[in-house]
Design goal:
The chain has 154 residues and is mainly alpha-helical. 66% of the residues lie in helices and 4% in strands. It contains four helices and two strands; from the N terminus they run ααααββ. It has a two-stranded antiparallel sheet with strand order 1-2. Helix 2 packs parallel to helix 4 and helix 3 packs antiparallel against helix 4.
């Protein structure tokens, strides 16, 4: 090693490339899920803005950007958790679909929100639950019950 510490720098570079290679190997099978998360977040943003306009709310750009970035970070955390669960439990116990099951629940909630915002932006109060598809029910979209002040029979 010379007085500039070149050997130490070479060791750090090799270590850095090793860490990057491990991260690439980890995220490679999840790349389409990452893309799907981004698409879902931006679709929800678009329909959420339309629904807010329909309700007559003021759209604050800074708040919309902050909440969108927050959602992207949240989804990154969920995707990381799903990937880690897949590595820790899915592979050893031969459950290759474990990460997808975890993400189906998380993405399902966001897809329900997208549909609700879509219908609200069209002036319709609909309640959407895509999880009913797994219960083999065909009625995943139902009108929301409005609270009308009807007199009760006494």
């Amino acid at each position: 090693m010379n007085c500039r510490g070149e050997v130490g720098m070479q060791e750090r570079n090799v270590t850095s490339f090793g860490v990057i290679a491990v991260l690439i190997d980890f995220f490679e099978p999840l790349r389409w899920i990452l893309l799907l998360a981004l698409v879902i977040v931006f679709v929800d943003l678009r329909f959420g803005i339309r629904a807010a306009r329909k309700r007559g709310e003021t759209i604050r750009t800074s708040r919309a950007i902050r909440r969108t970035i927050n959602k992207i970070v949240d989804y990154m955390c969920w995707i990381l958790l799903a990937g880690v669960l897949g590595e820790a439990f899915g592979e050893p116990f031969d459950i290759p679909m474990l990460p997808l099951i975890v993400l189906l629940v998380v993405f399902g909630c966001e897809i329900n929100s997208c549909f609700s915002n879509y219908f609200e932006s069209r002036g319709q109060k609909m309640q959407v639950n895509i999880f009913k598809l797994f219960a083999k029910k065909a009625d995943i979209i139902e009108p929301e019950e409005t609270n009308t002040n009807k007199p009760t029979d006494q």
